[in-house]
Amino acid sequence: MARPLPRSLPAAARRQLLQLLATGTLAPWALRSAAQGTQAAGDSAPLAAASFFQRPVFSGAKLSPSGLRVAVRAAAPGQRDRLAVLDTATLKLQVVAAFKDADVRRFSWVNERRLVYDLADHQSADADLAFAPGLFAVNADGSGYRSLVHREHVAERFDRHLRELPWNTFLLEPPDPPEADWVYVVQPDVVTEKGFDYYRLLRLNTVTGLAEEVEAPRQAFQWLIDARGELRAVLTARDDRAALHWRNPADGQWKRLREFERFGLGGDIQMQAVAADGRLYVTARPGTDTLGVYHYDPAADRLDTEPVLALPQFDIDPQFIVRDGRVLGLRHTVDTTVTQWFDGAMRGHQAEVDRLLPATANILTPPRRGESPTLLVHAFADVQPGVHLLYNSATRKLVRLGSEQPQISPARMATTDFVRYKARDGLEIPAYLTLPAGAAGQRSPLVVMVHGGPWTRGAEWGWQPEVQFLASRGYAVLQPEFRGSTGFGLKHFTAGWRQWGRAMQDDLADGARWAVAQGHADAARVAILGASYGGYAALMGLVKQAEVFRCAVAWAGVSDMLLLYDARWSDISNAYKRHGMPQLIGDRDKDAALLTENSPLHQAARIRAPLLLGHGRVDRRVPIEHGRRLRDAVRKHNPALQWVEYEREGHGWALPETHADWWGRVETFFAQHLARPPAPAQG
User: How far is CA 228 from CA 179, 232, 274, 328, 432, in A?
Assistant: First the structure.
């Protein structure tokens, strides 16, 4: 029997002012006074653009397997991200990893006493990145440090003092076997000029640095590991085909279960996790429009008819919350991240935390084993960047760990609602609508913000820096989940196939018209904005819908669909170009006329409205030739074109200073081109 549906959209209270502010890291939880809230709301000076795009001060927390410790990643403003361990009983904090030239990136508990982590460089743009992520291990008290994978791009380094795997070795999330010191890592099995295609799996001891390859089918790119840390299932690919393989626990032999198309729908089942009884959790849509979670028996190649969890309007992409080998709940996304608890005790804890924190959506994570009462809480809202806390389920007390963006005042942010509107052909389009503070009952200038991908989920309900920046300047923001977006069912996804510049584009204009009809937007002051595919759509908005969109902002945008196929310096894989893009976008040869007709570069003469165009010089996904060629074509006839090229940036902006510069330009551009028309002269 299907499980009950998760709780509905966040209540109105969750979208109100978050009246909370701790006095500092690890301080007890406290409520903000009414006077403080009033003072913040009364401060009318807008925040500088840079305030919205700072690196998070506190950017992650993970409980140890038993819940006795919590690892946190944090930094002072302008400094490197460090890794520290907090004792949940004493609140004693110990820094265990800090680098002068790098930031701690991913981190995980190997076991109760040991962590593993890799690195990034958040102070460098793409052109300046000099090192690989590496891989390192350390004990919770700061002892036992070992470098497991070297950062330099060299093939091998090994001596009796230092044993390290090559730089192109990457961590899989540790399976948490009881008291083991090893983790799983992957190394490329096939390397092309585009990068790494397939990988082989290794078991790596984080104390000795010794690694051994795990026997598995070749050309793999997904692995399922059971609760004992044993490899049980593998997904492999070759050209346009993918296959699911399962290892029989009785004899250890591998069996190919199913083969399917690699691109497009990607098969009738998608493996997710290994259940305690040896069956697999998979996502599937057996006669349904949306993906649900089901049990699949690999020995019998049989899918259960009843879902573990399924919803009528949302696909489920689950994260399994497990304690002592038992699934307590499934975490997934509807309008925002929610958890469907199967465990009665966890449902009670969720209700209590929601009572204590009524203004936020609250994500609870228990320890993976043991009886500790400590739970990790991630609290957030549309007006509130994430806040991380510890909750003691025995005492019902909260302790604050840190805030991701402490400079943001919730009282000054704009509220976001999840809405749906009808496209011209009747298809229902989900969207997020953000109205500037104080705009209720007024028609605001509107920015239609188009997500990239396009075959992805665009947004979730929560604090979004770009959206809040625009709202702080007085703009309403509409974020359509146009057809082709994932997460909303098969019909919605496939309705976008081969529809670049066509029905996908119509969905955006229809969204703008809906916002006008609802009284939210001024029809004479509507702009379109986006990056990557969103940049393409912004350009096509000026080509095909100039009567709707007064101006456009596009960065890292596709300008020529034929160039997507022909650009040899792009990082798009050859397999995807041969087998995925013809199905999703159009065939390079058979549909050449259609691709040309719907390419902004080949329609540049029609781009007459004001346009702000940006690109990073080292963009490998959408190479800068897309931007430069369009710039040259539009510049001939459009004096309102503005061009920005960032020398060190890639596909999108990496550096906070680039974000601040770019969004400052956007602010100036919209102030000029979305200004209210002057009132007619009085006769």
Answer: 11, 10, 10, 18, 42
